[in-house]
Amino acid sequence: MTSIKPLFRAIAASLIAAVLVGCASTGGPLGLSPQQEQALGQQQHPQILAAFGGEVDDPQLKAYVKRIFDRLMATDPTLPAMEIYVLDSPVINAMAVPGHVYVTRGLLALGNSEAEIAGVIGHEIGHNEKRHIAKRVSRSNLAQIGTVLGAILTGDARTAQTIGQGAQLYLLSFSRDQEYESDLVGTRLLAAAGYEPLGAAKFLNTLGNWTNLEAQIAGVQQPPEYLKTHPNSANRVARAAQEANVLRQGGAPGETRRSAYLNAIDGMLYGDDPEKQGFIRGRDFIHPQLRFAFTVPNGFEIRNSSQAVLARSSSGAQMQFTSSPSQEGPAALINAISQSLKVSLGTPQQLNVAGRNAAAGRGRANTQQGAVDVTAYAIQWQGASHWVFLWVTPANQTRQLDNAINSSVRSLRDIDPASVRVPAPTRVDVVTAQRGDSAASLSQYMAFPSYQQERFLIMNGLAPSSGLDAGERYKLVR
Question: How does pLDDT run across 98-143, given as a tens digit for each residue?
Fold first, then answer.
């Protein structure tokens, strides 16, 4: 958790603005002109930087990634102008908005060669080359208009809802087509720049394996591909590999530059920076820089992210802790949350938490999984800055969790950073395998509480049955 700004609101507002801009543009049917695309990119850029912790504070790493980017861009002088940024976030992500391409250090930690990361960067370049944001806005507006027209023409709310669901699936399908198209662009840029064109497919395979492991650990089932915004990694691997094999026909394999890549990421921060982004110790979340801490109930597992602290119980109860400003105070913020969620939270109840003014509200919502209770707490921390706890509990569990949730909220407290023992950050450590080393022996050094060997294998692009080669270098996180 890096900031107390309500970034989710700012980003949502800018996306709404993008749709409104598209409605008035001349860039195609309800789409964006190139000039409007660039303006949107400039508008989004500072928000993306803030949402993902800004740029990494490592000039050498940034320069290394820029050299990869420049090598790809040099292959095609017709590519639109853009710049690349390395985000200081542990989240595995890459993205593009007009004029800008981003990769996170979390993504860099998962790669195993320069060719793999070049494939990711090439994919994001492809989104900008193909003007996918402009097309996305155009299709989104058309789909929304279709829903409205359906409601007007039929006069039937159920029919309008069905039309809306159809429009959403149409948009998801269009997004998958964009992803496939960008995969092909990235693979072709790889080949043109002299990289091994299979690099893109190899990274997608690693990403798919990592995602599946994370889902297994969390006990979450992956949705079917037709309900995903991004296509299934296995399908993308197959398509990217097919294109790579076509490009390689009659030619020698391109460069992978694995050694140069491992040199560049050796020592790179992995996961959260405990001083700047907070850290988890047992059931406590502690943030030295923002000078607060709180404790989650027994049975809840905590996870930190760039914008919120999340917690979940094995029975399905969930918590989100984040921040939001309100010049009008906690009660007004509860009402704003109620409107945003479209869940009536009732008349806000005035409270005192950690010696500060606070308010709470509760309401019930029906979901596909059944009825849930939504409980929101807003605590005025300093000036207009507020901390917000949002709890979602299955309706049949709410009563038994009430005391624990209330205790967790009231555990929010000031801390003196000087009295906190901040753990050392974990980093990527590139080691050379010795004779007799194995995945089982090296993975014992991985700084993960579970699934150490599985993570070691995936992070190093190894199959479960793979042995290690003496003298070869491998990534640890410790």
Answer: 999 999 999 999 999 999 999 999 999 999 998 877 776 655 554 4
Residues in the chain: 478
Q: Where are the alpha helices (DSSP H) in 33-131?
A: 34-51, 59-73, 105-110, 114-129
DSSP-assigned states of every residue in 321-384:
EEEEE-TT-HHHHHHHHHHHHT----SPEEEEETTEEEEEEEEEEEETTEEEEEEEEEEEEETT
Q: What is the pTM of this model?
A: 0.77
Q: How far apart are CA 252 and CA 195, in angstroms?
A: 11
Rounded to whole angstroms, how far apart are CA atoms 167 and 63? 43
| Cβ pair 89, 270 in contact under 8 A | no
Q: In DSSP terms, which residues pair with 375 in a beta bridge?
A: 362, 391
Supply 414's token pair: 């000031």
pLDDT grade, residue 91 (50/70/90)?
Answer: confident
Nearest CA among 293, 287, 283, 290 for reference residue 274:
287
Q: Tokens representing 333?
A: 């913020």
Domains of the chain: 7-269 (no CATH), 284-419 (3.40.1000.10), 426-477 (3.10.350)
How many other CB atoms are there within 10 angstroms of residue 206's CB atom? Answer: 22
CB 236 within 8 A of CB 204: yes
Q: What is the pLDDT of residue 16?
A: 30
Tell me if residue 299 falls in helix, strand or coil: coil
pLDDT at 6 over 60: no
Q: Where are the alpha helices (DSSP H) in 193-257?
A: 199-218, 233-248
DSSP secondary-structure letter at 55? B
Which tokens belong to 448? 């993960």
The DSSP bridge partners found for residue 71 are none
